Amino acid sequence: MWAGLDVHLRLQRDAFLRTIMAAAKRHKSVAASQPGFLSFKSSLDDNSSVIKRRKRVNKNKKKSWNKFSDIQDVEEFLDDVRLQERATGGLLSEKTDDSLFFVDTGETDEKDTQAQTTVPKGKQSKPLRIDLILQPDSHIQAPKNVLAFQQPNAKKQRRISERAAKLAAMGVLPRREKLLQLRRAAAASGVSVKEHPVANNNPKRPFYDLWSAGTPETADPYYLEQTKKKLVKRPDRLNEKPSVLPAIEVIAPGGSYNPDFFSHQDLLREAHEVEVKKQKVEEKLARQLAVNEDKATEESTFKEQVEGLIDEEETEPQETGGDAEDTVIGPTATQEKKTEKQRKKEKAERIKELQRKAERQVIDKQQQLFQLRSIHVSVKKQEQRTEMRHAQRKAQQEAQKSMPRRLGRLKYQTPDLDVQLSDELAGSLRSLKPEGSILKDRFKSLQKRNIIEPRERARFKRKYKLKYSEKRAFREIE
Known about the structure:
By secondary structure, the chain is an all-alpha fold. The chain has helices at 2-33, 62-68, 72-88, 97-100, 110-118, 129-134, 146-149, 154-170, 175-189, 221-226, 261-288, 298-306, 323-326, 340-369, 372-401, 438-448, 472-477. The protein is extended.
């Protein structure tokens, strides 16, 4: 709509400019032909200036367009057009005479007389000023709000509706319609009749506990399922714990503040074995990374320098026999072509070999009838081996449930045992010193139970290097 109005305004503007320029040119030529012509300011427009000679400027830049272009007449024309549109709803030149003028015959209509009699006189007949301000004073229609008519996924919904209409014309119903028809048929036949809910004003209705934990499912299960109000059944595998280990593991009896001697020694032995394993791993790594420390002596250096300079003794010549002269260098003799008799003989031998193999297979199958007992024993042994492997695999899976799994890039590392030596044991709770940290213990327990992955402390990395500068006070001390 706005694009068409803009084009229309441009055409009217061009016609208006051509008319003004043609009239001014004609008036100038007529006035110039008169004898004793003098140019003077027009008395019709006081603000208009004398027509001056056009200044020649360079208009190849946008800055020059805005500076030297006079569009005052165009702006006045456009303002006049906008005023006509606001006042009359369009251009006066396009209006019909009936819409602009009327013939006053001096007669009044009955509707006007009735309106004059019904409207009271005085101040009450005048509308309020606030109502006049709120009334629209423009006859231009408001632009159409495109967003108000848009729908989300309109194309998709249209395609779905078209496809549903096409399938309905073919006699194919969607799944929901089929289920609804089945439910209606079942309800009509009386297979599953739903009881009507009891009215709230019925005094014989059952008692309902408002503060109970559960909510009575008075609605239809099908309705609850379709409206997504019924919870989805949780899979059984999600109810299983990631590990069978308890949340809090009780320490060995040797870790008590006043332990028994033997239990304390068992705990020390366990801690000793852990340290021995760590030491073995460190020694193995040191052996793998060890460098051969054997240094070169003067004798070995001299041998390396002299190697290759002294000629070795000539080897004894190889013995040659008369057979060497008989050897043939080059391609072997071509194979002789077989005769037809030889080919028939080979074919008969191949047929006999195939018959012999077929007879042997038949004999082996007949012999298997007498081996049913041994076959049964072998099958039974194989089943026993399969069951034993299944039991071993199941036991291995059960054992893995109590072990930490690899959840990330890091492996789980067992924390050190909190153990005190014999001379560090305290005789009472007052003199007991705390060992370990509860926060670290809980963090390691979460990792061991496969709840979180093993992690390491983030390393602090400075973004910018530190810059050291000496202060003035420090320089004065020196």
